Automatic annotation (TrEMBL):
Keyword Transmembrane found: yes
Cell location: Membrane
Name of the protein: Peptidase
Organism (species): Halopseudomonas oceani
One CC-aspect GO term: plasma membrane
Length: 156
């Protein structure tokens, strides 16, 4: 009877690891939860808490589905992220609004370059800005800053 337990737990642990690894090749964040369910069954079988195949399959199914139902959304946001989510948030999430920048090049047709935190950024402005001047970030669209010669009122 002990041999059956050893073989059962090894099967479940191997299945769990394979399902977790399959997420690297076929991402979708579903197989990972079934992998966690299989690892749980393998651990419980190894500890002798569960033994019969019907109980193992039931624990596997229930734990996998409950984990999938309760945790998938949280893990998906954490692991995958989304640029759409970033665009939908407040524009000041990056902490750029109201920051003072140095104008690196004269703005021609409203387009030029500024320096922010030691990096050169593409920028747009309705104001006529010249090299060496200071400006303030009023908005941003991706990696293009919108700047102004006057400091914006950032108080709400």
């Amino acid at each position: 009877m002990l041999t059956g337990y050893l073989e059962s737990y090894a099967f479940w642990l191997l299945l769990g690891l394979l399902l977790l690894a399959s997420e690297f090749f076929i991402p979708g964040l579903i197989a990972a939860f079934f992998g966690l369910g299989a690892l749980l069954v393998g651990l419980l079988t190894l500890l002798g808490i569960i033994g019969s195949l019907p109980v193992q399959v039931t624990v596997f199914a229930l734990s996998s589905i409950v984990a999938l139902w309760l945790l998938r959304r949280r893990f998906q946001r954490w692991l995958q992220g989304s640029e759409v989510d970033l665009a939908a948030r407040d524009q000041d999430d990056a902490g750029l609004l109201g920051v003072r920048v140095k104008v690196l090049t004269d703005f021609v047709d409203g387009v030029g370059h500024v320096q922010l935190n030691g990096a050169k950024w593409d920028a747009e402005s309705a104001d006529p800005l010249t090299s060496g001047q200071s400006a303030w970030v009023t908005d941003h669209a991706g990696i293009v800053l919108r700047v102004s010669a006057t400091k914006p009122n950032t108080n709400n």
